[in-house]
Amino acid sequence: MSEITRNKKKVAVVLFNLGGPDSLNAIKPFLFNLFNDKYIITLPSVLRFVVAKLISIRREKFAKTIYANTGGKSPILEETLSQKKALKEELIKNSDITFELFICMRHWHPMTAEVVKNIKNYEPNEIILLPLYPQFSTTTTASSLNEFAKNLSKEFIDKIKLKTICCYPLDEGFIDSHVKLIEDKLSDKVDLSNYRMLFSAHGLPEKIVKSGDPYQWQIEQTVLKIISKLQLIPKFKNIDYKVTYQSRVGPLKWLDPNTEDEVKIAGKENKSLIIIPVAFVSEHVETLVELDIEYKQIAVDHKIDYVRVPTLSANELFIKSLANMILNFSSNDPGCLSSSNFNRICPDIYSKCPCKAS
Q1: Which tens digit of pLDDT belongs to each residue from 273-299?
Q2: Do residues 8 and 151 share a domain?
Q3: Same domain, 110 and 188
Q4: CA 254 to chain centre
Q5: What's this model's pTM, rounded to 2 decimal places?
Q6: Which of 32, 51, 95, 271 could form a disulfide with 266 if both were Cys (CB 3.0 to 4.6 A apart)?
Q7: Nearest-angstrom CA–CA distance, 204 and 207
């Protein structure tokens, strides 16, 4: 190995996502892992284990019918692999740092323990953690990051610098990538006066938000920023829009308004719809089945036009925005946890925001 190669900075970038079953047989253990997560089911560990077992048994059959629509498995790993490939190419083009990217799924493979071992073998000088959850929530980002920290402590002491991008709901590149996708999808529509945009995000039980989780606030800020840029384009100037939440399960009170209910309301009002997945950065069952099949059928039944904007996936602007965040974090020292602009962006009332008040 040459002296130049040996002295070159090596950075491990970890891309976090929820994960999904890679076969029909994986559905039950995936569901168990999901509902045994203390950030999702906030019960004592013994009770949570029992509840997770019951839910995974009871929901397995129904979940199999859902995943049958996506080839018997979740597409999320393939989507994330495409993002990883595009992101690595972008980083190579714009930096002489040696980057290696690792995918880390919270509830299915590749899971945290195996990923941390692979990172240890890579021997990086620095680790940058990048959740593929643009808006922070304890149920997603905090769960992934804390599981990573727990496993990291088993393999490393304090030898490696760790930097974490906790969220990027207002990042310019992230916002611009949404705006461009919306523009492209609606390029053939001249008159949008009878259309309503539904910015649909995965829902949360209200009690989680009331406990200080900033997720809802960050979703709303993302949408406001997208709308402010869209309204600079003449045909979007007076667009009707709402922020909605999908995928509710169980008896708890969830965030409102519910996307499915809003599709029905639009149908009754004879209002055509544009659906924008504002918190999902890759296609999976919530978009390909819930949005594209279940909710679309409601629109078809009401005879209204239903346009679904794709997720960001490996969109060029989105990948560039992720690359810029990584490069900025690698060249600066923002501390352990920071939003993409190195500051806390959440109001103080959101006590679960991991960034320190500025």
Answers
A1: 999 999 999 999 999 999 999 999 999
A2: yes
A3: no
A4: 19
A5: 0.95
A6: 271
A7: 8
